[in-house]
Amino acid sequence: MKLVKNWYFRQIAFVLAFTMLALGAVPAKSMAYVVGSEAAVSEHSREADIARIQRVLESKLVADRLSQAGLTEEEINGKITQLSDEEVHSFASQLESVYPGGDGLGVVIGLLIIVILVMVILKLSDRKIVIR
């Protein structure tokens, strides 16, 4: 029975390792390589980019930070209107990757899933963790 149980858990470990390898091998932004540069440029308009920038600027954390820097809302809007189309698009596309408060939630959830998975595997294999 012990031999069958060890074989079973070894098979589960190999399947989980292969699944994680397959999921990790696919790039997160894999479809970005398919779209040509002309289609990407024509898809974005200046108004849509400015609206995206305004949404980020209206968040409380960003607004407080800008007011601490001594900028008023009129000054910010004036500087945005002075930017060229390329600069507005570049700034708006960079805003998608910025998290004002940090993106720690995904890391915490990932670590919890790993810890729970290790605990389940150890419990099923009749092993114990002793901390002294």
Descriptors for this entry?
single chain, 132 residues, mainly alpha, 0% strand, elongated
Mean pLDDT: 77
Topology as a string of helices (H) and strands (E): HHHHHHH
Helicity range: over 70%
Which word captures the global form?
elongated
Largest sheet: none
In terms of DSSP E residues, the strand content is under 5%
Number of helices: 7
Distance between the termini: 32 Å
Number of strands: 0
Low-confidence residue ranges = none
Structural class: mainly alpha
Radius of gyration based on Cα positions:
25 Å
List the helices and strands and how they pair.
Layout: H1 2-25, H2 37-43, H3 46-57, H4 60-68, H5 73-82, H6 85-95, H7 105-124
Helix pairs in contact: 3-6
Describe the structure.
The protein has 132 residues and is mainly α. The protein has a domain at 35-101. It contains 7 helices and no strands. The radius of gyration is 25 Å and the shape is elongated. The model has no long low-confidence stretch (mean pLDDT 77).
Short description:
This protein has helices at residues 2-25, 37-43, 46-57, 60-68, 73-82, 85-95, 105-124. The protein has 132 residues and is an all-alpha fold.
